[in-house]
Amino acid sequence: MANTPHRVVETFKSMPQYVELFQSAFPEQADPITLENVAIALAAYEATLVAPAPFDAYLNGDDTPIDPEAKQGLALFMEKDCSSCHSGGEGYYPFGLVE
């Protein structure tokens, strides 16, 4: 998200809850917030995602599977220009159902 590796690590280290979570996840490490561990945590999270998800149906034109709160989140996502990188298909970080 327009960050450098150093800034990603420093951002995580600036948030006490993430410091605690990384200490819990990587207890054997004196300094558990590293770019490698961020990648491991992200991969573990992504492994929990279910596809196709209701959002995939929404992207395919079905307006019913996501609630108003999710639609607000999507509007914020678009407003903040997250879609410039997370655009699906050929984008840098695809989202949605990729076949």
Tally of individual helices: 5
Evaluate the radius of gyration. Answer: 16 Å
Distance between the termini: 24 Å
Number of strands: 0
What structural class do you assign from the helix and strand content?
Answer: mainly alpha
Major sheet: size, sense and barrel closure? Answer: none
Descriptive account of the structure:
The protein is mainly alpha-helical and 99 residues long. The chain has two domains: 5-46, no CATH class; 50-99, no CATH class. It is 49% helix and 0% strand. The protein contains five helices and no strands. The protein has helices at residues 5-13, 16-25, 35-46, 54-59, 68-79. The longest helix is centred in the middle third of the chain and has 12 residues, at 35-46. The relative contact order is 0.09.
Name the descriptors.
mainly alpha, 5 helices, single chain, 99 residues, 0% strand
Q: Topology, please?
A:
Elements: H1 5-13, H2 16-25, H3 35-46, H4 54-59, H5 68-79
Short description:
This protein is mostly helical. 49% of the residues lie in helices and 0% in strands.
